[in-house]
């Protein structure tokens, strides 16, 4: 059985922030004239259960405790940004491509898998493989629909769908484990090229509407702060690692330029670049003012302040601790964000103030 949407938005920002302070799910309304199809590509930031389904692993409690009240295949205590985006256009939550039982793909597919990157391109389930899965899904759907199969996407659905992409964090994080800063910077153009190639390929198979997230402030993650060997000169005013964040900014600069190049090259395509980095860093920098706990501390982990992260005792492992439900933490497990933070991120994404061009997400389902 597919997970059904609860509610949807956007509302004016002051209303959203008021609602975020209340217990329970957001009570908001869709602003779409028609229900869109969404195909998502990415990593754990938008994985709604692909990793769990693909490897046969089940994330145990306390994941999912806030909204789903049980583990949902998400590395979060509740909803992800992609869940809030689906709500905003009246769509059901995206079903993972690898879910073998009870799948309904009429509103789209989620190809995102936790741990995915852009390179190496042929490693499951990196971006190239996700795109290949999409092409197979498209081919099979168009072959089976005339034979009476349901719960799939038709040709019009593929052509009018929103193609969301949120990937790159693992490329940077993985590179920093064995390369110097300058070597990581040298690799970044190859990461962006893979995203550019993915958009090209989807376009060649009918896709016209692309929604591309840049990567967040890697140097602000409690995991990186707890495990990196650093000196005080690399810490900024908000407790983040400047070197890792500078690499993320370089990635984002090249990704934004690539989106601009694609807009010029792809006729009749709409490509929206979203500055998720600015959104996330702003909440981290102003966490206390927005009613959040210490943004450098994981809600679920081990070790206590300042980061509550230990690579040997991660969230859900024997001996872990978890913050009280109802407290507004930015970080869930040291790598991923809480539902409370994701709700704020989504509200700012939906404002269009961080988008280039400044189009609302519901633009695609009203045109």
Q: Numbering strands along the chain, what is their spatial order in the largest sheet?
A: 2-1-3-4-5-8
Instruction: Kindly give the count of domains.
Output: 1
Rg result = 19 Å
**The CATH topology:** Rossmann fold
Low-confidence stretches: 1-29
Which class of secondary structure composition applies to the elements? alpha/beta
The gross shape turns out to be: globular
| Major β-sheet annotation | 6 strands, mixed
What is the helix fraction of residues, given as a range? 25-40%
Order of helices and strands: HEHHEHHEHHEHHEHEEHE
Total E-strand runs: 8
InterPro entries: GDSL (IPR001087), SGNH_hydro_sf (IPR036514), SGNH_plant_lipase-like (IPR035669)
Signal peptide: 1-30
Protein name: GDSL esterase/lipase At1g09390-like
Pfam families: Lipase_GDSL
Helices and strands, with pairings:
Blueprint: H1 13-20, E1 38-42, H2 50-55, H3 81-88, E2 108-110, H4 127-144, H5 155-160, E3 162-166, H6 169-176, H7 181-204, E4 209-213, H8 222-227, H9 242-265, E5 270-274, H10 276-285, E6 300-301, E7 321-322, H11 339-350, E8 355-356
Parallel strand pairs: 1-2, 1-3, 3-4, 4-5
Antiparallel strand pairs: 5-8, 6-7
